[in-house]
Amino acid sequence: MRFGPLEILLIVLLVVLLFGGSRIKDLMRGAGEGIREFKKGLKEDTDKVSEENKTQRQN
Q: What is the mean pLDDT of each run of 10 residues along the chain (59 residues)?
């Protein structure tokens, strides 16, 4: 199923009417923070794995 520009515009307008502009802004900010924390967690896990590999190679 494909959405054309008119359908997308209608959906966006409906969402803005239901939630309001400020609420959507808060939701997007929260989503951005969540993505940032997720990437940070992935990086920390990758760093831990590489440190464990270094220690195993040294032994």
A: 90 88 87 94 84 76
What pLDDT sits at residue 48?
81
34's enclosing H/E stretch is helix 21-58
Cβ neighbours of residue 11 under 8 Å, at least 6 residues apart?
Answer: 3
Closest CA to 11 of 23, 3, 1: 3
CA-to-CA distance for 27 and 5, rounded, in angstroms?
A: 23
Reading the block at residue 24, the tokens are 């959507």
Distance between CA 18 and CA 25 in Å, rounded?
A: 13
Question: Which residues, 6 or more positions from 15, have their beta carbon under 8 angstroms from its beta carbon?
Answer: 24
